[in-house]
Amino acid sequence: MTNAAVATTHPNQDQRLSQQARPVRELRPAVDVYENADELLMRADMPGASADSVKIRIENSLLTLQAQREDGAATLRYYRAFQVPDSVDPEGISAELKQGVLQVQLKKHERAKPRVIQIRNS
Amino acid sequence: MLTQWNNVPLNGLRQEMDRLFQRFEYDWPTDSPVWNRELDGPQFALRDAGESLEITADVPGFQIADLHVSFEQGSLIVRGERSESAPEGYSVHRKERGAVHFARAFTLPTRIDPDKIEASLRNGVLELRLPKAAEERPRMISVKAA
Description:
Order of helices and strands of chain A: HHEEEEEEEE
Largest sheet of chain A: 4 strands, mixed
Largest sheet of chain B: 4 strands, antiparallel
Strand order of the largest sheet of chain B: 3-4-10-9
Number of strands of chain B: 10
Strand order of the largest sheet of chain A: 1-6-5-4
Number of strands of chain A: 8
Helix content of chain A: under 10%
Strand content of chain A: over 45%
Shape of chain B: flat
Largest interface: A-B, 25 and 27 residues
Radius of gyration of chain B: 25 Å
Oligomer: heterodimer
Shape of chain A: elongated
Number of helices of chain B: 1
Strand content of chain B: 35-45%
Order of helices and strands of chain B: HEEEEEEEEEE
Radius of gyration of chain A: 18 Å
Number of helices of chain A: 2
């Protein structure tokens, strides 16, 4: 994929154009993804990001993580997008920002949780 | 008959390979400021703020106890360690944030007052303020009419 193709499909393009007064630099934070029976857990390194700038969106199972950091004359924008499985409940997403690490918990639908089926002696 | 080396068709192939690798390097994501991939440590910024020098370092996930700042023989030394923190009972899908262990020493461009160094940790950013020694501070020189 060429860089031009990325730019034209970028979801924040309009926003970007409207903020030209202050240069915005986009950064790709390192992310860990974990899973257990109940949830997916993500951790992203976003040092210096303010909690009120964090935007977490889920649309058509595309999860986007975004946060901003003011760095002198420039704005740094952390941005990552992930395809999440259908088992994730869009209503069950919570997040916290601690020590510059964004932690996102994505609860699974009840029906998607593994079930243990007991075998009875007959 | 002997042919010169630079005439062989392999040269074309080699150039093609070079191009390929150049493109590969170009596509590689190098835009993350958080970790300096070569040094495997955080990126530091040093700024001269007039009365003091200011150093910042991106240390996401570090606790205060994980960071050590000292001033020895004119050098500022910053050390830190972040251990692997995979939560218990979870399987791992993606692991980009590893354990980090770093030590950096800075030779400062001016003399400072070591007793007045301040260090703080905020939102995963280590901020150091090093007030300059009195004789190094900026001075205004008034221009007199001759």
